[in-house]
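FORM 7B: Structural annotation worksheet

SECTION A. Query
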Amino acid sequence: MALTGLEIFKLLPKTNCKKCGMPTCLAFAMQLAQKRAKLEDCPDVSEEAKQQLAAAAAPPMRLVEFGRPDNQVQTGAETVMFRHEEKFYNPTVLAVTVSDKLTGQDLKERIESINSLQFERIGVRICVNAIAVMNDSGSADAFATAAAAVKDTSELAIILVTESPDAMAAAVAKTADSSPLIGRATPDTAQAMAKIAKENNCPLLAVAESVEALSELTEKIKAEGVEDIVLSLDGLSLRDQLYNLSKIRALALKKTFRPLGYPTMSFVADGDADQQAAYATSLICKHSSIVVVNAVEPSAFLAMLTARMNIFSDPQKPIQVEPKVYPIGEPNVNAPLMFTTNFSLTYYTVESDVEASRVPSYILVVDTEGTSVLTAYSGDKLNEKTVADAMAKHNVEGLVKHRKLIIPGYVAVMSGKLEEATGWEVMVGPRECAMLPKYLHEVWKKD
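SECTION B. Predicted structure
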């Protein structure tokens, strides 16, 4: 049972030394009870107290890592039910299946198609994280051969999926140095699978048909010496899967129920690519830590990756681009110069429309702490001084011989003060950046 803040406080030194970064020991105790602080942050806590506080200090959901050291995947370690409460820490791991029935060129092409599932969105690389090798053939040799092929031709993390301990032993022998996630450990095979996981230092996937059976299974696996566990529910509809994933998360985070304090995995095998993308997106939202799909269509995968990116962004920290001058095309000294903010979505929307105009241009990105144009202006993070300072810092005078600056139409009201602060002629651009191509051709070129 988790300790309350007051119970934790009674075990602390009560010196209010502030070494932990908190103003008082009571404040630290409250943060510790909410899993928002670490016990090691207090340098003066006694060994006896450490033992008593271990349960309260341990995260409610265990962090599980697998994959190669240079491309390791982390999952779990979440602390809240909902993103708005704080943030989610480790994005859902997206994996694609490879059947061990595939051989030769077919196997190679399947792996290559999975490797290619990577995109760039608002300046961030988003991609598939893992390959799940499926023992569809039932053969230990075929399973080991497919696993070895994945290891040799992909840098992605590996998940080995079989119910046969013999097949698992054969495959792990080929891939152990890549630290794969292995499973499926059922109540009948838990002991044998746990032995393989422990000997090879691999995390283990535990599979059961109910939340109750799953909690019993994790205790059985832990008794065999395996601490890194991933949970999976078998044979459920999407509706029941979502309900039980939420139940597991609530028991782990709200009740600190340790037998269920692990990341979860879901398999999406049925339906076409679009249906798999829809199911996977639902599971990303509530609350699967790893989602395995069969689909390799880029359009479907981009939808899943975009949803994941949105869910796992920090709501308290907007995605930002570096404040500087970005050349679009090959601009010269006569090219138009415009500014926008360093909120990624704003910048890349502007960049896309400027590129579409085919007019080589300069975009000055002003640091507004990652806020959009109107938000920054209303919060006084975008004004004539911040723009003038950005122009001076990035030496825009050395880029163009004209002295004209295009500003977003939504902040036309600042044009007069900006002209006074910079001495430049201010041209008010369109309110919607979708109109930039027309503006650059019809207004800038005629000016």
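SECTION C. Observations
The mean pLDDT is 93. Residues 238-253 form the longest helix (16 residues).

SECTION D. Sign-off
Analyst initials: ____
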